[in-house]
Predict the 3D structure of the following.
Amino acid sequence: MYLFFFYNIKLSIFILYSFKLHYKMTQAITTCLWFDGKAKEAAGFYKAVFNEVENISSNPMVEMITLYGRRFMLLNGGPGYPINPSISFFISAQTEDEINIIWEKLIENGQILMPLNTYPWSAKYGWCADKYGVNWQLMLGHESSCKVMPSLLFTGPNNGKAKEAIDFYCGIFNPSNIIAINTYEKGEADTEGNIKYAQFELNQLPFGAMDSSAPHQFTFNEGVSFVVTVDTQDEIDYYWDQLIINGAAARCGWLKDKYGVSWQIVPSILGKLMTNPATAPKATYAFLQMSKFIIADLEKAVI
């Protein structure tokens, strides 16, 4: 019970800060990473690792950055949800020097899941978790419309459902596009027909997906979530009602879809209400009572 209460308070503060400067970014998908009090430290670490990190905003709860142009929220959410390999991030390196330098920095006090080496699918590839638990897949010359790309790993009860999930997400977001799907063939290292590698786009942002039949001890959790910012109640209803099918609602705009992937569906008006000292306390009280955001109730609460 205490953890649940603490979790919701963290979310309220998170929304207050994260939308202070970014409520105008509508229908965007931002990646949210959950840290245990080390968001600022992690932001500095990534700035030292990668050559294209920009700080957008900083406060005690949230660090907003762009990594190779893609927006990330680094949330000081507490100890509840450690990041695991279920969602990793592909980095496309253009030279051997680049991939070697990034790799050596990421593995310092981290963990190597697959050594940086030559594999059948790449002249140079490696998978590691950095010291904060964030997982990275580095590949030389990987083709993508974005330098950094989140990749979803479907394991356990989700194993074999990557293609189904891609179709599910592409059916919700517009525009969307399936770029590539490669499956395991008979005699290869995983179940025949499972997705070896897939790439798709949601709102013109690339995502990846893979299946794994191995006995992994992890699955999707709140450690990595995706924030969809919209303008209208119709948009909130649309994304919420579609993504939550056979999933589960949480508080303050959070939900889990049927695969366990966490999403946050947030109205852009919240930022305006939260940055106004006259409306912020009432707005905070109102949205702490909500699961799905109701814009009319927010507006009514601050009158």
In short: The first strand starts at residue 28 and ends at 35. Residues 1-27 have pLDDT under 50 and may be disordered. The radius of gyration is 19 Å.
